[in-house]
Amino acid sequence: MRDSRSYFDGIPEIRYEGPESDNDFAFRHYNPEEVILGKTMKDHLRFSVAWWHSFAWPGGDPFGGQTFERPWFGNDMDHAKLKADEAFEMFRILQAPFFAWHDLDIRPEGKTFAESRARLEEIVDYIGQKMEGSGVGCLWGTANMFTHRRWMSGAATNPDPDVFLYAAATVKSCLDATKKLGGAELRPLGRARGV
């Protein structure tokens, strides 16, 4: 499935060039090294690429279906790993210091909770490898408890004890995954792994 080409081939790394730049691939106002009130802009503005918005959203709205066709769209682990590969290429281009995710954004849903958790653990290990040496850290991870029909009556407020337990176990697995990835929101600022 994967080849040596990237979805983002030909897009240069985005750098600060100032407000007069006419380069479409340049920061005009965000200078990560500029010091403001004793901290760099990079420290003030902890930008994070949200996996859902950038890699999982199919481009639909309430009045229409999917409009995006992305090579990483699919319901298997090969597609999830391709999505991670392309995500880290985009993080590199944008010099993004962090990413954020929902469990459903980074792994396909399994037929059972155990299968979904195993897929989450597998992709978290893969993402952890991608993080090594990249300079990109995990800001936070969370559970998607709104897309699947099991959540139609809520998650933590669901009157069905099985759904409530599924929700609690999902939150626990996402907390474990976020901790494993060094989630910055679980520790003091500036202590994220790889950052």
UniProtKB/TrEMBL annotation:
It catalyses: alpha-D-xylose = alpha-D-xylulofuranose. It comes from the Bacteria. Its main location: cytoplasm. InterPro entries: Xyl_isomerase-like_sf (IPR036237), Xylose_isomerase (IPR001998). GO terms for biological process: D-xylose metabolic process. It is found in: Cytoplasm. One of its GO terms (cellular component) is cytoplasm. Its EC number is 5.3.1.5. It is an enzyme of class 5 (isomerase). One of its GO terms (molecular function) is metal ion binding. PROSITE patterns: XYLOSE_ISOMERASE. Keywords: Carbohydrate metabolism, Isomerase, Metal-binding, Xylose metabolism. Coiled coil: none annotated. Homotetramer. Belongs to the xylose isomerase family. This is Xylose isomerase. It comes from Rubellimicrobium mesophilum DSM 19309.
